[in-house]
Amino acid sequence: MLLQKSEICFYLLTDTSEAEKLLAESNNYLREARPLKIAVVIPTYNEKDNIKKIISAISEVLPQADIVIVDDNSPDGTGIIADRLSSQNSCIHLIHRRGERGLGLAYIDGFKFVLNNLDADYIFEMDADFSHNPQYLPIFLHYIQNYELVSGSRFLRGVSIKNRSLWRNIISKTTKWFVNVLTGIKLTDVTGGFKCFRRRLLEKINLDKIESKGYAFQIEISYAVRSIGASIREIPILFAERTAGASKMSTRIILEGIWLVLKLSLQRIRQMTKLL
Ligand SMILES: Nc1nc2c(ncn2[C@@H]2O[C@H](COP(=O)(O)OP(=O)(O)O)[C@@H](O)[C@H]2O)c(=O)[nH]1
Ligand SMILES: [Mg+2]
Predict the structure, then answer these.
(1) FRET pair for 239, CA 20 to 30 Å: which of 71, 135, 215, 245?
(2) 142/258 Cα distance (integer angstroms)
(3) pLDDT (tens digit, 0 to 9) for every residue of the chain, 276 residues total?
(4) Can you state the angle between helices 166-183 and 251-275, rounded to 10 degrees?
């Protein structure tokens, strides 16, 4: 896959106008979003300064939403705060994970919980740190009516990331390009974590087969969705770097991502040669 001319133009340009336009538009879909049955799954690790605020912000937009917090026994007491909130509101659910921690492991437990215990038709994944603005939820729900997955993208028509250095954008965009070439996922944001799934799509994915424990989960689930041939719509989102707490990105997480991409590309080559 060669870089197209327009892609080169927009490769590093920060352009938040499309994402901001969508954010403003999202409010128009509030009325159609409110009767829908939805669940929002949020993995947390040391988010004591964000947890209460993010739950309130989601409930303000969509008061009917079930919110599933999947906490990995956070040392800062995030789980204790979430416990208190869930005892006061039956829409807030808390999964206390024990043992090995990881964003991927948390999402798998969260999705299984929703499928087994809640009647949500639309299931979101999003971060606790306000990098994903809950005001976007109605517009995701608008688009999901015609697709099986709606994925928020930071790299659709320019880079819509606030407060991030140029070099991090270079690394992110280059990584995404390689992942797409090697795995054939073909999304502008393969590691994005703001997504809305139709329930039927999540039911079709064999969650027990997903092996990524960390952030590589986002690539692996995107690959699984593509393999099923599900319909995907990407929409531009404004991604703001967190202002409270710290990122949990680590070398181990990056290495797991590289290993996964190599594995998926081999798998893809094997499938392609079988077809010949
Ligand atoms: N349960 C759980 N959540 C995690 C873990 N690592 C990160 N998270 C959560 O995943 C979301 C994204 O993580 P973050 O550190 O902000 O990633 P970044 O935005 O890429 O720097 C946040 O809500 C984190 O609290 C983990 O090991 N376990
Ligand atoms: Mg973050």
Answers:
(1) 71
(2) 34
(3) 445 555 554 556 778 889 999 999 999 999 999 999 999 999 999 999 999 999 999 999 999 999 999 999 999 999 999 999 999 999 999 999 998 999 999 999 999 999 999 999 999 999 999 999 999 999 999 999 999 999 999 999 888 988 877 777 777 778 888 899 999 999 999 999 999 999 999 999 999 999 999 989 999 999 999 999 999 999 999 998 888 887 877 888 888 888 999 999 998 888 888 776
(4) 30
Region 5-275: CATH code: 3.90.550.10
List the domain boundaries for the chain.
5-275
Interval between CA 266 and ligand 2 midpoint (Å): 30
Q: Which residues contact 177 (CB under 8 A, 6 or more apart)?
A: 3
CA-nearest residue for atom 16, ligand 1, is 247
Q: From the CA of 215, how far away is ligand 1's center (Å)?
A: 8
- Give the atom of ligand 1 at the shortest distance from the alpha carbon of 71: 1
Ligand 2 centroid distance, CA of 242 (Å)? 6
Strands (E) across the chain are located at 38-44, 66-71, 92-96, 122-125, 149-153, 161-162, 195-198, 232-236, 239-240
Best CA proximity match to 192, nearest among 173, 178, 209: 173
Q: 6 CA to middle of ligand 1, Å? A: 33
Tokens of 253: 């997480």
DSSP per-residue codes, 86-104 = HHH-TTEEEEE--SS--HH
pTM score, whole prediction: 0.92
Ligand nearest to the CA of 47: 1
**Ligand nearest to the CA of residue 192, numbered in listed order:** 1
Ligand 1 pocket test, pick from 127, 168, 190 with the greatest ligand atom count within 8 Å of Cβ, gives 127
